[in-house]
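Input record (one chain):
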Amino acid sequence: MVLWIGRYWEKWIGEPLRKVEADALAYRLSDSGRRIDGKTPWVLTTAAICLLVQNYSAHPTDAAVVVSFTLRPLLGAEVANHLDAVLRRWGADPLAMLLWWGIHAALCYSVLPILVLKLVLRERLADHGLKLHGVLKAWPLYVMFAVVMVPLVGIFSGTEHFQRTYPFFRVVAVEQVRADLWKWELAYAVQFVGLEFFFRGFLVHGTKHRFGVYAVFVAMVPYVQIHFGKPLAEAVASIVAGIVLGFMSLITRSVWLGAALHIGVAWGMDGACLYRRGLL
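The corresponding structure, as predicted from the sequence alone:
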């Protein structure tokens, strides 16, 4: 058994991570690596801008203030006032506000990083976690992680803090589950795709040439910060998830299974919380 585990670890984890570290060392010792590295500042500064924009326009009413301040001189008072009214109306509707948050987060996590990769750095998106070829090669790693997460979701979904937090869309009647919950869950899933690309694709693969496997820890820090305000157990778990999913992305060079796992856990938590309330 121990021998089998050792072989599995070497094949799926040890060898791929050593290659990442060897490639980073080779880069740092090359002529390009000895010169000023333009890519790392571009990636990290872009990430900071994305997180800033997301934080200060995550709610439609916050975006309304931004629209009024920045677009009024460009679009004119009539158009700006119309946009302001629409955004404030969305902000007053719980479902519309959450749909805005989910889609807005996905765009903040993806649009600017993609533009920087394609137009500034001239690099392939497939090299930054979006490749599809061979994405299922390391599926046992994700199955192992799912096996660990399923019982934890079941346990924590019964605690008071998780019951107060999930789902973000507050369901008080079965009719809401049929009519509206699916809309929120789709937006929630789209948000996780953007999130995985941003943290485990753009940040990890965008800095691994400089930091090697330690790029995972660079990306883990802001990932933990976006969990501030959530239940303490989830914030603590985000440290582990940030490291594990980061290493998985390095090993597989893809974020798609990580996104699927993230969505599955999130949907599972929402479903478990609703089930405990008798709404599923």
